[in-house]
User: Which sequence fits this backbone?
């Protein structure tokens, strides 16, 4: 699995747009905003008044967009938990969801009455929403069947992107040009400034120990090393046109360029092998689990096998960063999740 290490290393070390060749993947879409992968299928929120979510298969040489769901009201951020795609409908003041495995999915309301919901992020089975026009971030517990909304932070200055590293929630305050963080496991979390002076920051994603952020005002994507006691933003790629979100699949970074009405990508080539041993390993959560498990630090789709403690295979398939593995049918006990015969992760099925 050297290719896995090389790709991770490349994206962490890339510091200049000169190393990246921007390529158009899809043009002619209307104000693309949130993007997320389900396997090799890239789902794209088109944030127009008569909005929709479309998808393309990035494995195709000439990907053609297919409408997934239409009739949305200003879809901005999107996030996958299992097979449910959650959609922040900015103009509609709500979060809705669809089942991406359904033939003709219909959007169902999850939470309504919000004022400008914009970006979404998943932590375990909970959904976090930046309600930008209401200057707050909320958590939606059990968004699949019995959603309950709770205010996490209020009094912010137009929050947008959200990303997690363990219990630490990183979030953008667009009008403050900053990224801050809190520990969501604390009953009274204290906001800590991480970095300021950004140029209209929007989307936020965590990869390894690096926090990536789109700067739509600067037409670039930057990164911050969260392990640095004095973190600064360094440029990853520039020359974009209103970047607002991005997603990684295999050796490529896909970017939604809102003002250019397109999805572009950059191919990342390895530049060094010196830091291979520092690459983070895949992590499994929640553990124990009664229903679904997720694996973080995956890039692209990976084959998996699950074995019981006697060594018998009980389940196999493929999984990516934005998918989950259904373990509901397994009997209670200890199991080993093997990924690409490279990593073994033990978990408990309750």
Assistant:
């Amino acid at each position: 699995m050297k290719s896995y290490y090389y790709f991770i290393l490349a994206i962490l070390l890339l510091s200049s747009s000169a190393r990246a060749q921007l390529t158009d993947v899809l043009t002619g879409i209307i104000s693309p905003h949130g993007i997320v992968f389900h396997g090799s299928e890239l789902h794209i929120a088109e944030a127009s008044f008569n909005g929709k979510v479309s998808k393309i298969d990035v494995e195709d040489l000439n990907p053609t967009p297919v409408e997934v769901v239409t009739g949305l009201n200003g879809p901005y951020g999107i996030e996958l938990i299992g097979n449910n795609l959650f959609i922040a409908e900015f103009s509609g003041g709500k979060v809705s969801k669809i089942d991406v495995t359904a033939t003709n999915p219909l959007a169902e309301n999850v939470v309504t009455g919000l004022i400008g919901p914009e970006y979404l992020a998943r932590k375990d089975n909970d959904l976090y929403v930046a309600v930008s026009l209401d200057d707050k971030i909320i958590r939606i517990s059990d968004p699949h069947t019995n959603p309950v909304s709770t205010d996490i932070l209020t009094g912010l200055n137009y929050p947008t992107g959200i990303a997690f590293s363990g219990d630490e929630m990183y979030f953008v305050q667009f009008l403050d040009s900053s990224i801050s963080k809190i520990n969501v496991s604390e009953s009274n979390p204290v906001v800590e400034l991480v970095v300021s002076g950004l140029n209209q920051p929007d989307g936020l994603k965590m990869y390894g120990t690096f926090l990536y952020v789109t700067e739509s005002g600067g037409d670039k994507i930057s990164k911050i090393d969260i392990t640095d006691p004095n973190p600064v933003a360094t440029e990853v790629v520039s020359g974009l046109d209103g970047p607002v979100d991005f997603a990684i699949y295999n050796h490529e970074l896909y970017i939604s360029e809102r003002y250019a009405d397109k999805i572009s990508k950059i191919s990342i080539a390895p530049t060094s092998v010196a830091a291979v041993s520092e690459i983070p390993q895949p992590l499994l959560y929640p553990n124990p689990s009664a229903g679904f498990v997720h694996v973080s630090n995956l890039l692209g789709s990976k084959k998996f096998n699950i074995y019981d403690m006697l060594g018998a295979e009980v389940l196999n398939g493929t999984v990516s960063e934005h998918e989950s593995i259904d373990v509901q049918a397994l009997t209670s006990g200890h199991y080993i999740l093997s990924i690409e015969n490279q990593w073994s992760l033990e978990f408990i099925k309750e």
